[in-house]
C-alpha cells in the first residue's frame, strides 16, 4: 500500500581528496509492533558531539542476508548523491517456503540519528513503496525467498540530503517491522581532504589512528564555521560513530576536524573474515558436515591474543554473495544456508565477565544485532551459531570485560581499516542536518 505525500498534506597518512562520505523499538511479539514516533531535538542536543549511531529495530529471525549497496557493486557502501541518477540496491532473504508482497518505509534523521522530519519535508510523491520483486531459491537444502528492490525510483525520490533509515514491514503495516537499515544521501558540495595520523599509546602494541577531515564549505555556506559537524566511522560500524563539531579555524575558509586524542581509534578485533563460498576445508573452515540440514560448518578458533588477516580490499561492513560465488549461476537464489559455528578463545582461556557476542556484516556491524556465545569449559572457549548464506563476511567479537580490550591493545597488530567521514551542516531553514560531503580513506 502506497501513501501519497499529497494525500498526507490534505490529511494533516593515506590521503583522499574530493572536489566541488533513530529512534525505534525492538521486536515485540510475532508482529514486531513498534512505535515510530520521534521527539524533537533541543538546541543542546543539536550541538552536542556524540559517539552514537542509528538505533535500528531488531531484525526478525525470519530475515537473513540483508545487503544494501550502491548500484550493482556489493562492495560499495549505501551512499548516493542526491539527484545524481544513482540508485541503491536492497537484497534480503525471507526464510520461508513462499514469498509475499512486503512494504518499505523511509525516515530522515539528523546527524545523531534522531528521526526528525515528516515525510512531506524530505520525500516527493509517495512515502512508502511495495516490495513485489521476489523469487524462491533454486535447489537449496534450506528453502528461502530472495527479494530485490532498487531506489530512488519513480515512486520514491529524496528532496533532502542527510541520514536515512529504511524499514521493511509486512505489507501495509508500518509497525509490523521485519528489519531496518541505514543509508545516506549527500549533496556533494564543498571539498574534502581526509587524512589520518598515528598516535602512540602507552601499553599498546600498535598506534591508534586519528582521522583528520579538512573541509572547505561551498561559497554559499561559509558564513557560520560553527554550523558544521564531522562524524567518523571505521569499517562500517555506525554504532561506533565519533563526531566532532569544533573545527580548527586557522585556515579559513577551510575547516579542520580532528578527534580528541582520547577518542582516537585503537586496534580492535574487527577485521576477522570468513569465506563460505566453497564450504571446503580452507579459509578458516575446520570441518564441514553436509549430511545435516542445514549444512554445518565449524570455523577455526579465533584468539584474543592474535589478530585477523589483512585483506586486499576491506569489506567495510558489507556482505559479498555474487562476488564471492562467481561462476555459480545466480548465487542470490542458489547459494546454500549454513549453520556456522564461531569459536573464540579469550585471554588465558578463561570466561570473561558479561556476555560475549559475535557480530559483523551479517548483523549490520551492530553488536546489539549480534549473536550471544556460550562458554565451553572443556574447550576453554566460547562458541556461537549463526545461520549464514554462502558468501564472504567480516566479523568481530565484543564483551564488556575490560580484560578483552586490554589484551587486544597489548597484543594485536593493527590491520588495514576503512575510515569514512561525514560532513554535516545544521540547516535552520530545513530544521535538520544536511549531509554535504562523504569521503573515505584506508589506513
Number of helices: 5
What separation lies between the terminal Cα atoms? 45 Å
Helix content: under 10%
Overall pLDDT:
86
Q: Based on the coordinates given, report the CATH architecture of the largest domain.
A: Sandwich
The percent range for strand residues is: 35-45%
Write down the overall geometry. globular
**CATH class bucket of the largest domain:** Mainly Beta
| Class derived from helix and strand content | mainly beta
Number of strands: 29
Which oligomeric form is depicted?
single chain
Supply the number of structural domains. Answer: 3
Question: What value does the Rg take, in angstroms?
Answer: 22 Å
Residue windows where pLDDT falls under 50 for at least 5 positions: 6-49
- Biggest pleated sheet: 6 strands, mixed
Q: Under CATH, the topology of the largest domain is which?
A: Immunoglobulin-like
Give a nutshell description of this structure.
With 443 residues, this protein is mostly beta strands. It has 5 helices and 29 strands. Helix content is 7%, strand content 39%.
Structure description:
The chain has 443 residues and is mainly beta. The protein folds into three domains: 5-12 and 21-30 and 48-186, Sandwich (Immunoglobulin-like); 191-264 and 420-442; 272-411, no CATH class. It has helices at 5-11, 43-47, 119-122, 331-334, 402-411, and strands at residues 16-18, 63-70, 79-81, 88-94, 102-109, 123-125, 128-131, 134-136, 145-151, 156-158, 162-170, 177-186, 191-199, 208-216, 228-234, 242-244, 255-258, 272-275, 285-289, 295-299, 302-303, 337-345, 357-360, 371-372, 374-376, 381-389, 392-398, 418-427, 432-442. The strands form seven sheets. Strands 19, 20, 21, 22, 25 and 26 form a six-stranded mixed β-sheet that branches. A five-stranded mixed β-sheet has the order 3-12-11-5-7, with no helix packed on it. A four-stranded antiparallel β-sheet has the order 1-13-14-17, with no helix packed on it. A hairpin with a 5-residue loop joins β19 (285-289) and β20. The chain starts with a helix and ends with a strand. Mean pLDDT is 86; it is low at 6-49.
